[in-house]
């Protein structure tokens, strides 16, 4: 139980840090690059300056872009993990097929030994 709580706490901390990194990426790089023409036509330097009658739609647009970037990155991360998981499952199946069951191997050896013994007995008769 304690290990799960610690894992969850670490995941929350890393997720929070990851969220800040993505927020900075979106707010400082992606959003200005995408919305630069809109910012110039509106006559503002920062996205938070975009507002109409006190409604800061620039902040909302940044939040939507932030969500989309985080969702896309999580999608890529999960897809990568699933592909790796499937590859490991396939490798395990190949390994399981490559290594025969010890009982079957012992039975085949016993059958071969009985056949040789039968051949020897038949040749002496």
Instruction: Provide the structure class.
Output: mainly alpha
Give me the number of helical elements: 3
**Average pLDDT, to the nearest integer?**
80
Element-level helix/strand string: HHH
Shape: rod-shaped
Q: How can the largest sheet be summarized?
A: none
Q: Give the terminus-to-terminus CA distance.
A: 73 Å
Low-confidence stretches: none
Percent of residues in β-strands: under 5%
* Radius of gyration over all CA atoms, rounded: 32 Å
Please give a handful of descriptors for the protein shown.
125 residues; mainly alpha
Task: Write structural notes for this entry.
The protein is mainly alpha-helical. It is built from three helices and no strands. The chain has helices at 2-42, 57-98, 102-124. Helix 1 (2-42) crosses helix 2 (57-98). It is rod-shaped and about 110 Å long. The relative contact order is 0.06. The model has no long low-confidence stretch (mean pLDDT 80).
């Amino acid at each position: 139980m304690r290990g799960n709580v610690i894992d969850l706490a670490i995941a929350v901390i890393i997720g929070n840090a990851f969220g800040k990194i993505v927020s900075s990426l979106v707010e400082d790089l992606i959003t200005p690059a995408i919305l630069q023409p809109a910012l110039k036509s509106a006559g503002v330097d920062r996205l938070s300056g975009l507002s109409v009658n006190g409604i800061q739609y620039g902040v909302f647009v940044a939040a939507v872009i932030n969500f989309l970037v985080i969702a896309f990155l999580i999608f890529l991360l999960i897809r990568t993990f699933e592909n790796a998981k499937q590859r490991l499952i396939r490798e395990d199946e190949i390994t399981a097929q490559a290594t025969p069951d010890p009982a079957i191997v012992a039975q085949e050896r016993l059958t071969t030994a009985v056949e040789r013994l039968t051949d020897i007995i038949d040749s002496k008769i």
